[in-house]
Amino acid sequence: MNKLKLGLPKGSLQEATLRLFNKAGFFISLSERSYYPSIDDEEIEVVLFRSQEIPRYVEDGVIDAGISGRDWILENNSDVKEVAELRYSKRTFKPVKWVLATAKNSKINKVGDLEGKRISTELVQVTRRYLRKNRVQAKVEFSWGATEVKPPLLADAIVEATETGESLRANNLRIIDVLLESTPRLIANKEAYRNEWKKKKIENIALLLEGAISALQRVGLKMNVPESCLDRVLRLLPALRKPTVSSLSHKGWFAIDTVVEEKIVRELIPKLKQNGAEGIIEYPLNKVIA
How far apart are alpha carbons 282 and 115 in whole angstroms? Predict the structure, then answer.
């Protein structure tokens, strides 16, 4: 039987990734200490790696495909096929930002002020390329963790990943510059991607994951509307393309089915009711395939 070796991130993205796969239709179960989850697709073999390592293992052919951030692809300078951008994260739907930050009372206000200084980060190679681009010579040290607590005693500045900026503010740090924005990517080994079966399998996984992500912030709405109110209700409804409208068995009435952004529903439903819609039903979505 054909098998696709798939690497998924262990650590901060692990739970969000497993939830996403579940929403995409793949049930993955994991015992507490195992690095080899089971998946209800016998054509896929899953292994957990740190996100930082996955681009290297994909490039080397240890695994056929995997999910890792754009940040670690760039850090490893990995020669891989990027199949899909997957816009999800641990806490929000925003990209992770790698920022240059320093203590609030520091005299460092721009990248040029880092000349001869010491920077702590996990993203060493990207930071060094950033400094070269800005013609700044500074010492870049690898951080083994707790990077935010190092300025000013152990480092003059840090390059750190943030989604909301909360941890930086909590440690009295301020952002000087943004080095890059990163989202997870489904990547493939280039030789594996030339295999027609593996390519098709990877692309099908990408399609389902993208559909699941599209559904994360959307809901379905159904309602019944009398003919006299139909135009008013339709003008209120956004949709991926156009709402589906069908005649009911009761003459002069129509059923409307549509997909909308979840964040607007609490304001939209009262307006729909006020404009003649009845029997309004909101329902969750697993996948939205455009």
Answer: 57
**DSSP of 30-76:** --TT-SS-EES-TTEEEEEEETTTHHHHHHHTSSSEEEEEHHHHHHH
Cα 128 to chain centroid distance, Å, stands at 26
Following DSSP, what letter does each residue of 142-209 receive, concatenated? E--S-GGG-TTTT-SEEEEEESSSHHHHHTTEEEEEEEEEE-EEEEE-HHHHTSHHHHHHHHHHHHHH
Q: pLDDT category, 167, cuts 50, 70, 90?
A: confident
Per-residue model confidence as pLDDT tens digits over 233-264: 999 998 666 899 999 998 999 999 999 999 99
Torsion sign across C-alpha atoms 132, 133, 136, 139 = negative
Map out the domains of the chain with their CATH numbers: 4-91+184-215 (3.40.190.10), 96-182 (3.40.190.10), 217-284 (3.30.70.120)
pTM score: 0.86
